[in-house]
TrEMBL record:
The keyword Protein biosynthesis does not apply. GO terms for molecular function: protein N-terminal-serine acetyltransferase activity; protein-N-terminal-alanine acetyltransferase activity. Keywords: Acyltransferase, Transferase. It comes from Heliocybe sulcata. InterPro entries: Acyl_CoA_acyltransferase, GNAT_dom, Ribosomal_N-acetyltransferase. Gene3D superfamilies: 3.40.630.30. PANTHER family: FAMILY ACETYLTRANSFERASE, PUTATIVE-RELATED (PTHR43441:SF5), RIBOSOMAL-PROTEIN-SERINE ACETYLTRANSFERASE (PTHR43441). It comes from the Eukaryota. This is Acyl-CoA N-acyltransferase. Residues 71-229 form the N-acetyltransferase domain.
């Protein structure tokens, strides 16, 4: 019959991968090269998050009962170490993102201070997003967050011909909910430019705080404030502004 059609799409499985500590050596499966020399300064080191090395230490500090509300504005909310390992593996399977462990070099033993991600990378258009940053309570209101963000920005935006070399991306994004005061301040402090507010852009898991309900739909949603640092901003004044913040403490 002319005009007849079918739709054979099958949605991907919703279940998480089985919990795993991964292979040895651990396969990051990331679309961009890792450049350790630009991911470190005298205060912090950003090193790829390897579950066998970092997962248990992360979970000790970041399980929901220890930090209530920690995951309110994130798309995931693990309730156990196994669930967190499954989430890490799901993101590892996506080559557009990588997760870094934040190590504080100013403290004895360089303890794990949190995590930060470079996600939603687009190698064709040279765009990436800095996201999923979690700093443990003992390291908040210190040099950790600003230096972790600054190192991630340098990694993304410095040219491949720089010393040390970066990725040479054209645009780095920071996306956050308007109600997430700390996240908005973090972007502003690092001289990112606010571009737009996208209404009802994120869908959160049922029961999460921080969102608004739609009658008849139990899943809360939030708006998104979009910040960006582009290469021309970075070269003209952004790198200098970020460096000043990183050097304050």
């Amino acid at each position: 019959m002319p005009g007849a059609f079918v739709n054979l799409y099958k949605p991907p499985a919703k279940h998480l991968p089985d919990p795993t500590y991964g292979t040895d050596p651990y396969d990051l499966n990331f679309v961009f090269p890792i450049k350790p020399e630009i991911l470190e300064n005298d205060k912090l080191q950003l090193t790829p998050f390897i579950p066998a090395l970092h997962a248990e230490g992360y979970w000790t500090e970041a399980h929901p009962t220890r930090q209530p509300g920690l995951y309110d504005y994130l798309p995931w909310s693990p309730q156990s170490l196994d669930e967190f390992l499954s989430l890490v593996e799901r993101y590892r399977q996506d080559p557009t993102g990588v997760l870094f462990a934040i190590l504080d070099k100013t403290r004895q033993g360089q303890p794990l201070a949190g995590i930060i991600g470079v996600i939603r990378c687009d190698p064709r258009n040279l765009v990436a997003e800095i996201g999923a940053i979690i700093v443990f309570p003992a390291f908040q209101r210190s040099h950790v967050a600003s230096n972790a963000i600054g190192l991630a920005m340098r990694y993304c935006l410095d040219l491949q011909t720089a010393s040390p070399p970066g990725l040479g991306l054209r645009r780095v994004i920071w996306a956050t909910a308007p109600e997430n005061v700390a996240s908005n301040k973090g972007a502003q402090k690092m001289a990112m430019k606010q571009e737009v507010t996208c209404r009802w852009n994120w869908l959160l898991a049922p029961g999460k705080g921080g969102g608004r309900d739609r009658p008849g739909d139990p899943r809360p949603g939030v708006d998104m404030v979009l910040y960006a640092m582009c290469w021309d901003d970075w070269e003209s004044a952004g790198r200098e502004a970020a460096t000043k913040v990183m050097d304050r403490r």
